[in-house]
Amino acid sequence: MELTPDLSEICGIHAGDGYLRDDGKRRELDISGNFEEADYYNCHVKELFKKVFAVEINPRAFLSRRTYGFVIRNREIIKLFHEIGFPYGNKSTIVRVPRFILSSKNKLIYARFLRGIFDTDGCVTFKNRKTGKYSEFKKTHHYYPSIRFSTVSKEFANEIIFLLRELQFGHITLNKYKSSNLNENIRYSLIFYGADKLNKFFKIVGSKNIVKLSRYLVWQKMGFCPTNLTLQQRQDILNGKINPYSMAL
User: Fold this and answer.
1) How far, in Å, CA of 124 to CA of 118, rounded?
2) Does the structure show a pLDDT above 60 at 249?
């Protein structure tokens, strides 16, 4: 199948939140996130799959596991995902960026894959500066941005860094976390900081997930984004219904 930006974004979505199943009885492509992301699945992911695969998906809530998404049982689509390089079963420790994306040398393809990953498995956060010679505003408002990707696949972490560097994001910090629980895998967290890189990320990569995008839009409008807000609260800030300064501390 021809590699297009839309297909690349779908690959990123699957790498972040997807599961490919073939247990001899069921063949399924399962992609889901949290309930708050329903609009993302209903309005964007659904249309992507329709455009690329000419298939209608029907996102819904999976109450037993508290997620929202969809399941596809189209054998040709499942076969394609596997041939692209996605494994059946738990992929967390072995997921990779598909080879045909890495070798494309196409920056739009890179950006759209990163968008799919960010919208499903990435995060944008803002922090304040509680200590040091900072202004009162910086001490009491969450103004300093960072974008983070986290994975238990070391190879995948390095491949994401490669894509980001190809898009000229410069230095990216890679941290390794080892849990005291011996049953948990080592987690790799890559992160970059600052207003310039944040603005560049949303200009080049962008986001179609309003849960992630709304944090950036509040920060862009106000110069800070309070933590622990719901999507509805952030939308109310953007619509002028809530004063964010009352939530700053």
Assistant:
1) 9
2) no
Q: Domains in the chain and their CATH numbers?
A: 5-119 (3.10.28.10), 120-247 (3.10.28.10)
pLDDT tens digit string along 171-214?
A: 899 999 988 887 889 999 999 999 999 999 999 999 999 999 99
Q: Which of 11, 7, 15 is nearest to 94 (CA)?
A: 15
pLDDT tens digits along 102-157: 999 999 999 999 999 999 999 999 999 988 889 999 999 999 999 999 999 999 99
Residue 34 confidence (pLDDT): 94
- The answer to whether 148 and 189 are in contact (CB under 8 A) is yes
Which residues are registered as beta bridge partners of 173? 191
Could you count the other beta carbons within 10 Å of the beta carbon of residue 43? Answer: 12
